[in-house]
Design goal:
Keywords: Amino-acid transport, Cell inner membrane, Cell membrane, Ion transport, Membrane, Sodium, Sodium transport, Symport, Transmembrane, Transmembrane helix, Transport
Mean pLDDT: 84
Protein name: Sodium/glutamate symporter
Function: Catalyzes the sodium-dependent transport of glutamate.
Main location: membrane
Low-confidence stretches: 206-213
Strand content: under 5%
Strand order of the largest sheet: 1-2
Structural class: mainly alpha
Helix content: over 70%
Largest sheet: 2 strands, parallel
Number of domains: 1
InterPro entries: GltS
Order of helices and strands: EHHHEHHHHHHHHHHHHHH
Radius of gyration: 20 Å
Length: about 400
Amino acid sequence: MEYILNPTFSLMLAVLVLYTGRILNKKIPFLTKYNIPEPVAGGLIGAIIFFILHNYFGYTVSVNKLMQDTFMLMFFASIGLSANFAKLREGGKPLVIFLVAISAFVVVQNGVGMIVAKAVGLEPLMGVVAGSIALIGGLGTAGAWGPIFETKYGIEGALPMGIASATFGMVIGGLMGGPLARYLIRKHHLASPINQQKEQDSNSQVSTEPEYIFEQPKRVRLITSDNAISTLGMFAFALAFANIMRDLTVDTVFELPTFVWALGGGIIIRNVLETVFKRQIFDRAIDVFGNTALALFLAMALVSLKLWQLTDLALPMIILLIAQTVAMWLFAVYVTFKVMGSNYDSAVLGAGLCGFGMGGTANAIANMQAITNMYGPSHKAFLIVPLVGAFFIDLVNVVVIQAFLKIFG
């Protein structure tokens, strides 16, 4: 029997998940030591409870999908609303280098997938399903490509395997980013943990200056009701733009995931208001609403994971996903970290890469927040990862998937 929670109960559950994660992180040193984000800790507990309800009592509990998607779109819109052209120019050469490196990883991810899939007796193209489609693309991309692989390429089970792989990736992406960055930081002596009292004093200070969005989510932001209303208006316009463009471009060469249009809408609205109408944009309010939407979306997404789908994976599929996890770790440590400068910023970028390389940009931001909360800010990482992980990489992913299908399909 399936129960779909209404918006009120979905929001209540998300808040409970977040506070559960916060309590767990305070009580269990392992979680803090390895920088596990609060939504991941609390969300996995909720997912395990729902797994037990499903397997032993026959109940399936789901959150309100419209509310979850709305928070996701708000999160991506907030990235767009924070991306003025000056900040894009500020990204400069490091942004280009990171994009090139990650574009190479999309090819590596699919290559590893196809090689391992063939070695364990699966259809080689299944390696693409369990590669960049499910891992970099996430649940939405897996759901979109699965039926195409089944109907056009005759690969049975592509849809459920894609969904299961994306589920696996979301969990692993949230779990491995923090430990990876911590390993790099400690190995190369890149930073020391922030004194706890100093961090509390910093967080308690009221911020009145423009902030790098998402970088210090626990810091107090000074906003007014007027700021909040105008900011919510910009979010509404960005989400409306996303829905309109989704409907206009469906089944065309310009079709993109709705969240990409939300991000693009935010960029357009931000820069039109600043350059054409000379309006001041309140980054502090965008920061607050963006972080709130991110936390609630992650909580809902993780608590909604259908863990029983992972139990249905055959041994070959499990081997394939383990190989992808190893490939992600090795690429982040020996390629991304090196080409981005082998410094603290590149370690934080590695945590972000694990997030969107295995699960999604929301995981990437949460991973990096866990690191910067402990070791200090990384402006470069929080500038580059949202732009690459939420926008450019999706375009690259589509091109690479199409290329693999043309060559091997």
